[in-house]
Amino acid sequence: MYGLVNEAVRNLVITNAGEDTWNQIRTKAGVEVESFSRMDQYPDDLTYRLVGAASEVLGAPADAIMEQFGEFWIRYTGREGYGHLFDIAGNSFRDFLFNLDALHTRVGDNFKDLRPPSFKCEDVNEQTIRMHYLTERPGLCPMVLGLLRGLADHFETEVFVEHPVCSRTGGEHCEFLLTMPHANR
Amino acid sequence: MTHSCQQILDAAFPFYWRCDEGLKVLDFGRALSKALPSISVGASLETFMVVHKPKLKQMSAEELRRAQGSVVVVSDSEDRMRLRGQVLFQEETSAFLFLGTPSFTDLQQFEKSQLSLRDFTVHDPIIDFLYMTRAKDIALEDARALSGKLAHALEGMREAIRAKTEFLASISHELRTPLNAIVNIPDGLLESFVEAPVIQCGGCEMSFELEEGETHDSALPCPECDLPMLKQGRELVFEGNAAEAARYLGLMKRSGSHLLGIVENLLDASKLEHATLTLNTDDADLGALLRDVVDSLGVQADAAQVRIRQAWSDDLDLNIRADTTRCSQIFLNLIQNAVKFSPEGSEVVVRASASDAEVRVEVADQGIGIPADKQDIIFQSFRQVDSGHTRRYGGSGLGLAITKQLVELHGGTIVVESEVGKGSTFRVCLPRRAGESNPTNPSTPANPSNPANPSNHKAPSAENAQLDDAREVEGVS
Fold it and tell me: How confident is the model at residue A70 (pLDDT cuts 50, 70, 90)?
C-alpha cells in the first residue's frame, strides 16, 4: 500500500482522536515510524495492523473505522492536491463512478507497484447503478462504502447504497447497488 | 475540411487552430479560446498570438512553413499561457494546422490557468505529467520534512550529549565532595594510632602500656589476675583527640549517607528512564505528609533563616490514594528547593486545596526566580537554568525532572509560575486516586532525572551540614 494511504489513516486518527491516540495505535500495531513517506510503498500488512490496532484502541469495529476512512479519503486526497485531477473523472457522481476504473488504471500505470482496485459500473435502470469492486486485497469493502459516501457528499448527490454481494460472505467479488432517487441520466 | 473531419480534429486536439496562407484563422479547437482569448475566425495570427519558438523573423507564411518539423511554442500577447505543439502545412487545403496542448511545469501553474482537466483529451500526456508532478512535489515535501526532522533530532542529540557531559561533570563533583571526606578523614585518624610497647597477660589477656625504653620482669605476676604469665610485646594505641575523632567519624557517616542518597536518586532516574519504576499505592493523608516534610526541613530552613508557612485549614480533606514515599520525595524536593533558593528572612508558603477529583499543592518562594525561557528546561533531565547554579546552590540540578516524572506517574501535573527576582510558585495537582490512573511512566523515555535531592527522608539539614563539612575537609586535604 502506498504511504499516502497510511498517512491518510494517521491524519484521520489525529484529526478525530489526537496525537497521543495515534501513538498508542502505532505502538500497538508495531509501527515504528511516526509518519509515512507518501510516495513510498509499504507492506499491506502494515495498513491492516493499523486498522486492527485502531479498532482496539478506539473501541470501534474495524468495519466502521474502514468506512470512516473511505469517506475521509475523498477529502484527504482533495486536500493533498489531487482535487483537480479528480475533475478528469467527471463532474457528477454518476460520471465519476463510470470513470473511476479509468482513473485507477491511469494511476496504476503511472505508479510502480500500486496495484489499484478495479470498479466496473453498469446501469441497472435510470436511477440505479451496479458497481463491481474487484481487488486483490481482501476485507476492504467497508472502505468502499465510505468512499461512496464521500463521493456523494463531494457531488452533493443523494445516494442509497446497498451491498448485496460481498466477497467476505462467499461472493466472487463485492457488488454495490447505488440508487440516486433524483438522478436524470 | 469536412465538418466531420473538423469534429474529429476538435475531439482529438481541442487546442488546434488552422489558418490560410494569408494567416487568417479558418477554425480552431473548442478549448483554444481559454489559452488564446482573442482568437476568432478570420482574425490574423499576429493580432492575438506570439510565436516564442522557433524564432521567426516575422509572422509570415514562409516562416511558418520553415517552422514545420520544429517544436512550436505560442502564447497570447501577454504570455499568460503557452501552447506547445507543431505546425503542419496542408497542400490540398493550402492551410496551416497547429496541433498542440498547453504546457505546464507544475500543478500550481495549471491551477492558475482556469483550465479544467476535462478541457484535455484522455490521451493527452499532460494529465499523467501533472499526476507525476504532484507525486514529485509530495515526495519532495516528505523528503524536506524528513530532513528537517533529522536535523532537529540531530540537534536534540547534540544537546543531549552536551547536557549529559555537563551532568557528568556536576555529578562527579557531587560525588567527589563526600568521597573526599570518606577517603581523607581516615588518614588523620590513622595517624592518631601509634605502636607502643606493652606487656600482655597470657591468662586474662590484659595489656599494660610501657614507657618507651622501660623493661619488664617476666617473673612478676599479672596485676589483674595474679598469674605469672606476662609477656612483652607491641600494640596499636589511640593517642588522638577522642572528641575530634568522633566528629570526623560522624562526618564520614553523613558523607556516606549523602553518597547513598545520590546513588538512590540515580537509580530512580534510571528506573524512570526505563519505565520500570512502579508505585506502591496506598491510602495517604497528604496534609500529614506535607507537615512531616515541612518538619523535616525545619533545621535547614532555620539555618537559611527562611520561614516555611503551611497555609491550609485543618479540616480540609487531603486524603488520596498514592505512593506516600514518592509523594514525600516530590514535596521534599520542591520545598527544599524553595528554601535553598530563598533569601534570608523570606518566607516559603505551602498551600493546599482540594476538590472532589483532585488535590492541589502550591509551593511559593520569594527567591531568585526562573527566567521565562528557562521554565521548561528546569523539568528536563540533565538541564539547568545555568550551570553556575550547581556550584552556587549544590545539587546536580536534575531533581525537578525526577519530581515531574513522579507527579506524572501519579497521573498528576506540575507547572511553574516564576518571575526573576520575585520568586517561583510550583503547583502540583494530584488526582484523588493518584497513581491508579497511570500505571506506566508517561514521560519521554529519554528523560532520566537527577539525584540532586535525596529520595529518602533524611534530614536535609544534616546533608547540608555534611556537605559543608565535606567541603571543609576537601579544602584542607
Answer: very high
Cα A89 off chain centre by: 16
The pLDDT tens digits for B361-397 are 999 999 988 888 888 888 876 665 555 554 555 555 6
Q: Is the dihedral of CA B150, A9, A172, A95 positive or negative?
A: negative
Strand extents, DSSP E, B79-191: 82-90, 95-102
**A155 at interface of B, judged by CB pairs closer than 8 A:** no
Taken in order B205, B208, B210, B215, is the CA torsion positive or negative? negative
Looking at 3.40.50.10240, 2.40.110.20, 3.30.365.10, 3.90.1520.10, the CATH number of the domain A89-179 comes to 3.90.1520.10
Contacts of A3 (CB under 8 A, 6+ apart): A36, A37, A38, A39, A40, A41, A42, B142
Segments in chain B below pLDDT 50:
390, 437-477
Q: Does A103 touch chain B (CB under 8 A)?
A: no
- Put simply, whether B146 touches A (Cβ < 8 Å) is yes
A38 with B110: Cβ contact below 8 A: no
Among B residues 103-142, those touching chain A with beta carbons less than 8 Å apart: 107, 110-111, 116-118, 120, 122, 127-128, 130-132, 134-135, 137-139, 142
Do the beta carbons of residue A55 and residue A65 sit within 8 Å? yes
pLDDT at B157: 92
Chain B residues whose CB is inside 8 A of the A87 CB are: 116-118
Nearest to A144 by CA among A54, A81, A76, A68: A68
For the cut 70, the answer to whether the pLDDT of residue A103 exceeds it is yes
Contact between B46 and B22 (Cβ < 8 Å): no
Question: Do B148 and B141 meet the contact criterion of CB atoms below 8 Å apart?
Answer: no
Shortest distance, CA B319 to any CA of chain A (angstroms): 30
Query: Which residue has cell 552556587?
Result: B392
CB A41 within 8 A of CB A2: yes
In chain B, residues with a C-beta closer than 8 Å to the C-beta of A82 are 134
Could you report the predicted ipTM of this complex, rounded to two decimals? Answer: 0.73
Q: How deeply is B417 buried, as exposed, middle or buried, from its count of CB atoms within 10 A (0-12, 13-18, 19+)? A: middle
SS3 state at B112: helix
pTM for this one? 0.55
Residues of A in contact with B118 (CB under 8 A): 87-88, 91
CB B107 to CB A111 under 8 A?
Answer: no
Q: How many residues does chain A have?
A: 185
A&B contacts, CB < 8 Å: 50
Ranges for all domains in chain A classified under CATH 3.90.1520.10: 89-179
Most A-contacting residue of B120, B133, B142, B144 (CB-CB within 10 A), to test interface:
B142
Exposure of B406 by Cβ count < 10 A (0-12 exposed, 13-18 middle, 19+ buried)?
buried
**CB-nearest partner of B142 from A37, A81, A102:** A37
